[in-house]
Design goal:
- This protein is mainly α.
- The protein is built from 3 helices and no strands.
- The longest helix has 37 residues.
Length: 102
């Protein structure tokens, strides 16, 4: 997980854990915006990885590439998918909390 993503995830978790002191709706919405930006970045990375996997697979079929790169790409793709799913789950919870604060 990248440093920026870690910061956003920590902010979301802190807002969700704060039961006594209700965070402002503005703060929750700002954090949601940051989170959605990170989700878009992760989704873009996922698409780039998928395209590269297609390229490497075609090169392997022609005997022009090593399987090591494909293995690394697949591992990174799995990591990105996990990070994206985790972030989306947190964002959904925060979105519900922000809507209740309205």
């Amino acid at each position: 997980m990248g440093a920026r993503l870690e910061i956003v995830v920590e902010r979301i978790r802190a807002l969700l854990a704060n039961e006594r002191g209700r965070p402002s709706r503005e703060r929750m919405e700002w954090t949601l915006t940051e989170g959605y930006a990170e989700a878009l970045a992760l989704d873009g990375e996922r698409l780039r990885i998928e395209r590269r996997i297609d390229d490497v697979t075609a090169q392997i079929a022609r005997g022009r590439a090593q399987a090591d790169e494909l293995r690394e790409l697949i591992e990174r793709q799995e990591d990105v998918q996990h990070e994206l799913a985790q972030l989306r789950e947190l964002l959904a919870s925060l979105r519900v909390r922000a809507a209740r604060a309205a």
